[in-house]
Amino acid sequence: MSFPITGVGAVASIGDTPDEIFAGLCAGVSGLAPLRGFDREKFKAQQLFEIDDRSGEGDEPGRATRFLIEAVRQAAADAGLGEDLSGVPVLVGTGLRELRSLELWWRDGIPFDAADLDFGPALRERFGALDAHTFAGACSASLYALALGWDLLEQGEADTVIVAGCDAVTESMFGQADRVQFDPPPAVRPFDRERQGTILGEGAVAVVLRREAAPGRPVRGWLRSVAVNCDAVHPTAPDREGITASIRQAHEAAKAAPGDIDLVLLHATGTPVNDLMEAKVTAEVFAGARPALTGIKSQTGHTSGSAGLMSLLVALSAIASGRIPPIAGLADPLPEAAGLRLVTDTPLAEPVGVAQVNAFGFGGVNAVAIVAGAA
C-alpha cells in the first residue's frame, strides 16, 4: 500500500518554501550565521542555523509556533484544502515544542501559558484544527508522526492527514551542546574525516497525506512505507542492530529491495559516532547496490524534530527534478564510507524513482521512510 503526498510546506534558515530550500541546497547556500537570539558572551559557540525572523534585538516568544503555522498553511494551500482544517487531523513531531517561550517567561517574565507548550491551541485558533496532537521526541520525531499518520489512513480513521515537524533552538539546548563540545565546530561536515560535531538549526515542515489522490490535484510523491523502532541501547550513541532493523523493515514494508533504492537521504549529523555507525550500516545494507547518498545538515543545521520530514521534502524534490544536492563540506570521506556513492561538490543530475529517508534519534528512536515518484 502507498499513500499520495498531495501538499508540502516548509521554512528553514536557507529558504521560506520547499522550492527555496531545495534551490538553496543545490546552490550551496548555508544558513549558518552569528547568534541572533542569545547573549554571545555566555557561550563558546557563536553560530547557529537560525531563521532570521525576529522583529528586533534579542529573542521573542512563539517562534516555533510561527514556523509551524506557516509550514501547515503552505501545505494545506498546496493540497487545495484551504485554511479550514476542522476535519483534518494534524500530527506534529517536535524535539523541543515551544520551550523557548517558557525560557523567556522564566527569565524575563514575558507572558506565556503552559498550555501553549504544545501546538494544539495555536492550530485550533489559526485553522480550526480540532484534532491536533503534539508528539515530543528526538531527532526522528517528525517521521514518528508520519508513521502515526500512515496508521490513521490505513485503518480508515481519516481520509486526509497533515503531518508536520518543527523546532526553534532553545537556549538550554544550545547551552547543553556548548558544554559538551569543548571545541565548537566551525561547520557541520557530515561523513568527513575531520567532522567535529553538529550545529543546531531551526525549521518546520508539513506534508498532506491522503488515502487516495484528489481528482484534479497534483501528487508530490507517494509514501510507500514508514518504519519505526526504539532499541533503547544507549542515550546518545546509535545502535547498529537497531538502525539496521529499521531500514530493513522499511524496505520490507515498501516491497523494495536495496537495489530498488536510487537515493538515500542520510541522517548525517556530522558527529563522530553517528556518521561512523550510519556509514557502516549503509555499507552493509546496500552491499552490491549503489544508491546515491546525500545529507543536508551542513546547510540547514540539525533541525531536531523536523529533521526527518525536512529530508523527506528534499527527497521528493530530487525525485521531481532529477537533481540531487551534494553534501556540502565533505572533502575527505571517512574510511567506513569507502565504496559508498556519496554526492559531493556539485548537484548530481540523475533520475530518482525511489528514495529512502533516515532519521535516528537519542535513545535509539529510529525511523526510516520510503518515498517514490508520482508516475
From TrEMBL:
Identify the domain of life: Bacteria
Arranged from A to Z, the UniProt key words for this protein are: Acyltransferase, Transferase
Q: Which residues form the signal peptide?
A: none
Which EC main class describes this enzyme? Answer: transferase
Under the heading SMART domains, the entry gives: PKS_KS (SM00825)
What EC identifiers does the entry list? 2.3.1.179
Q: Outline the extent of the Ketosynthase family 3 (KS3) domain.
A: 1-373
Family, similarity comment: Belongs to the thiolase-like superfamily. Beta-ketoacyl-ACP synthases family.
> What's the protein name?
3-oxoacyl-[acyl-carrier-protein] synthase II
